[in-house]
Every structure is written in C-alpha cells, then in structure tokens.
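User: Last request for today: this protein with glutamine, please.
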Amino acid sequence: MSDLGAILDRIGAEMAAAPDRGRVADYIPELARISDCHFAMAVCTADGQTFTTGEADTPFSIQSVSKVFTLAIALGRLGDQLWTRVGREPSGLAFNSMVQLEYERGIPRNPFINAGAIVVTDAILAGHKPRELLGEILRFLREAAGEDDIHINKAVAASEQATGHRNLALAHFMAAHGNLLHAPELTCGTYFHQCAIEMSARQLALAGRFLIGAPDLPRMLAPGRTRRINALMMTCGHYDGSGEFAYRVGLPGKSGVGGGILVVAPGRASIAVWSPGLNTQGNSQLGTLAVERLARATGWSVFG
Ligand code: GLN
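Assistant: Here's the final one, the structure of the complex with glutamine:
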C-alpha cells in the first residue's frame, strides 16, 4: 500500500493537535517522569516494508506488551500444558485486579492481566535463573525484530520492584493456592525486569511480524499458536477496555502502561504505536485513537 506513509503522517499530525492526551502512569515512579508529548507509530507490512511517523526510533518502556512475547515463549516451550495454570477468558476487570483470584482458586483469568502474566513468567522460569530467562526473552525479541539494540532499563525495573506490592500480593495469593513454582519475590523480580524492556515503535512493529502469519517473515512459533495469541490479544489485550478496543479498532492488540500498543492486522501488517498518556483502563489514549484511524483508513479489520 503506497499511501501508507501519507496516512501515517496525517495521523501523526492529527495526534499532535489532539486536545486530550490522557494521563501518564504514575504508580511506577520512573514512568511518571515521562512527558505525555511523545508520539510514534510504525507499520511493518506483510511484504516487508516499514513505514513510520513521529519518534519511531525513541525507546520506551514496553511494560505489558512484553506479555505477548513471554506467552509466545511459554506456548513454544510448554504447549497446551500452560492452560492448566491460567485461563483464556477476558477478565472485565483492571489489569492488576485481585478479586477473581480469590473465587477462582488462584487461577488467573488470562495471560495478559498481571496475575496471568506472573504465572506465565513463573512457568518459563522453571529450570532457569532469572538472568538466563531474561536473556532468552531479549534473544527472542532481538531475533523477532532482527535488531540487537534492545535492552532492559534497570532503573524502571528497580522503581517497579520498590513499589510492586500489588503484584507481589497477587503472586503470594497464587502461591497460597499452589499456582507458583518459585518464591513470589523471584518470579515478580523477573516479571518486573521483563516489563522494563525498552524498544522503539519501529523495533516493536518489527518484533510483532511473526504474528502477521505471512510467509517470508520471522517464524518464531507454529502458525496455529500465533493465531491463538492473536485471539487472546483481541479478547484480553486491553483488560476491561478490550471490548471497546475491538469495537473501535477491530484488530488484536496488546497495550502497556508505558503507553505502547502492539496491534496485528493478520495477513497484512504489524503495527506499534506509542503515546504515554493513558485512558482510565490504563491503555494509551492517543495510541488507541491512532490505530482506530489507521484501521479506518486502510480498511484493516478481522471483522470483514
Ligand atoms: N509492569 C506493570 C505492572 O505490573 C505492567 C502493567 C501494564 O502495563 N498494564 O503493573
């Protein structure tokens, strides 16, 4: 699509003028320092082209977008066994909610809420030291993106570690139900570091290409499994905002509180957007609006 560059530039200009940019996450002190003025968008198409607008080479904290990649590693390594420890239903609750865990006996609703992602990290930590697993996650991302310059921001990880009582509480609660293999501090420490990975929008769009399902792109996982990841992104990728995202955008997406969203247009493109201001569900306010406009301009939708 030759006018994709023009579409992105137009969206970039519209977002620069947007009146409501949402609110930057402030419960992780290092993230609270980020300005809400940033904006970037990148699109990698199935035929190998990349289009960008805005600060597409500025690294940002991918936070919960990392959950897509740890899920991919977990499905590659454990297969369907993973589903004995975490469900596949949307939660309809905030990303850090505790309530369901109590009456569902420590089994989180899905791998994209915090409790579910902590279980996924715990599962792939088996037989590894945290450092080794984090190395594997970075290797996966670097291979998927075809870029080596992807790292963990230690200050962000430390900041989350210092304030991560809620995630530790989730981990302890799951441990009490026998759904954690490692000490809560060890699993959460690994999870905090995975969330503190920094990537640019361009790198994130490149890393998401394996979910497009097109030939000639990096193949990190069997096609049946990538389809499943897309299904979970569609139903659970935006927490209690997943229905709204599906309605407005019509494509699978996974957000993070750093303001990034990875979106997949199956068979067509991988899209990454970054704008740090969040809506009330903790999803990027302008990021959502930007991909909504992109989907409208291109006609991309999984709903026909
Ligand atoms: N690291 C963040 C947390 O655990 C990730 C949450 C998110 O991006 N929604 O709170």
